[in-house]
Amino acid sequence: MKTKKMLIMFIALVFVLALLSGCGDAPKSENTSQPQAGNEGQSTASTPKAETPQKEAKVSIVPPAGWNTVQGSTVAVQYLKNGASFMVVEDNFNQGKTLEDVVKEAKAAIDGEFQDIKYEGETEAITVDGKDARKFFFTSKAYGIQMKYEYVYLFVGESLYQITFGDAANTFDSLAADYEKILSDIRFQ
Questions:
Q1: In whole angstroms, how far apart are CA 49 and each of 13, 26, 84, 186?
Q2: Residue 121 near residue 137 (C-beta atoms within 8 A)
Q3: Does pLDDT of 153 surpass 80?
Q4: Is the pLDDT confidence value at 4 over 80?
Q5: Distance between CA 25 and CA 28 in Å, rounded?
Q6: What is the C-alpha to C-alpha distance for residues 79 and 70, in angstroms, rounded to an integer?
Q7: Alpha-carbon span 113 to 10, nearest angstrom
Q8: What distance in Å separates the CA atoms of residue 163 and residue 167, rounded to the nearest whole number?
Q9: How far is CA 55 from the centre of its chain?
Q10: Which residues contact 65 (CB under 8 A, 6 or more apart)?
Q11: For burial by CB atoms within 10 Å, which of 50, 53, 74, 111 has the most?
């Protein structure tokens, strides 16, 4: 449980830092491509496909426009868009547990580490890449900033993966279509 709490606090810190980095000048991307004919004046930032080897799975995603890879991140898959962040991490507390058990343990860790937590709705059963998954939303204060998160858990083989979206609570919902597109397009191989 201690490892889970540390992972959750790390993720919260990453989201807050992402939010703070997005509060300055216009977002910058080191990944640029040449404009194609007829696209002059349009953004030339590219969003490369992430293919990250994991123990048993490779994660592939081409996110919607505007999401940029976090260069040098300690998280295997992480993208930012105007302070919002999404990441994919392999979790380590799946010893024979069901997704319901995983969600209970995750919420217990969240309850012990975050401030002013308010869960939104019930945990929802969804499908991600043809696999059974569970997602839930909550708001909380992290390092003095009101945040909103969407956590998604799924098993890929014997490995448990966590897909996390986070942003300032007042702007999170504006990217809901992006979050749904990411969940429909992500692949674990």
A1: 25, 22, 18, 10
A2: yes
A3: yes
A4: no
A5: 8
A6: 5
A7: 11
A8: 14
A9: 19
A10: 43, 47
A11: 50
Q: Which residue ranges make up each domain of the chain?
A: 2-20+49-188
- Residue appearing with tokens 């279509």: 177
Phi-psi region of 17 (alpha: psi -120 to 50; beta: other; left: phi over 0): alpha
- Identify the CATH homologous superfamily for domain 2-20+49-188: Mog1/PsbP, alpha/beta/alpha sandwich (3.40.1000.10)
CB of 67 closer than 8 Å to CB of 79 = yes
Q: Categorize the per-residue pLDDT at 92 as very low, low, confident or very high, splitting at 50, 70 and 90.
A: confident
pLDDT of residue 59: 93
Length of the chain counted residue by residue:
189
Secondary structure in 3-state letters for the chain: CHHHHHHHHHHHHHHHHHHHHCCCCCCCCCCECCCCCCCCCCCCECCCCEEEECCCCEEEECCCCCCEECCCCCCCEEEEECCEEEEEEEECCCCCCCHHHHHHHHHHHHHHHCEEEEEEEEEEEEEECCEEEEEEEEEEEECCEEEEEEEEEEEECCEEEEEEEEEECCCHHHHHHHHHHHHHHCEEC
Compute the distance between CA of residue 64 and CA of residue 76 in angstroms, rounded to an integer. 18
Q: Which residue has the tokens 């040449």?
A: 34
| pLDDT at 34 exceeding the cut of 50 | no
Is pLDDT at 54 greater than 90 in this prediction?
A: no
